[in-house]
Amino acid sequence: GQNIDQPTEMTATEGAIVQINCTYQTSGFNGLFWYQQHAGEAPTFLSYNVLDGLEEKGRFSSFLSRSKGYSYLLLKELQMKDSASYLCAAMDSNYQLIWGAGTKLIIKP
Amino acid sequence: EAGVVQSPRYKIIEKKQPVAFWCNPISGHNTLYWYLQNLGQGPELLIRYENEEAVDDSQLPKDRFSAERLKGVDSTLKIQPAELGDSAVYLCASSSRQGETDTQYFGPGTRLTVL
Fold it and tell me: Which of residues 43-72 of A touch B (CB under 8 A)?
């Protein structure tokens, strides 16, 4: 079956660094997406990885290991506005996104 | 560039009543998705359109849900009759495949409450 696993909730301190992990199992693979979703709002696109390695985009970076079925989202210099849910989604061979349940990130002052 | 537009943003109805949601995708995006999202969960695909053709509706409860995308642009999702368990956020997304990338962009969603 197809499956995405990510932690339910994480807590971090303002100004610190946090890493949100995601493991996936899909029928075929056409990339790994990370989305941010603030409470009561729609998911917004953060990053896309299809090749192994680290993609850096400002304070956010995303890493992919296809052989391990593993990805992480790294958030640096955390700000209070980063409090949100972070959704990991893998695209299968039919270009369908398989979604995780999301990781709720709580930032404390 | 305008994003995905959805209406209404909120809807409260009594069970057994009909309800309809409307979506206008990003201009030029040929793929349109309807998702359902419950609190604390990821989006669940209901139906995917490639232009006006429904290419994946395997998760759509066809006894009460229907959708259409006339002319391959706007789309409407309907529930008739609504049940208590249909209370959720209904998200519309659109995408346009660029090589290997097919990034989905979401509208603000419609929060449905069935009483």
Answer: 43-45, 48, 50
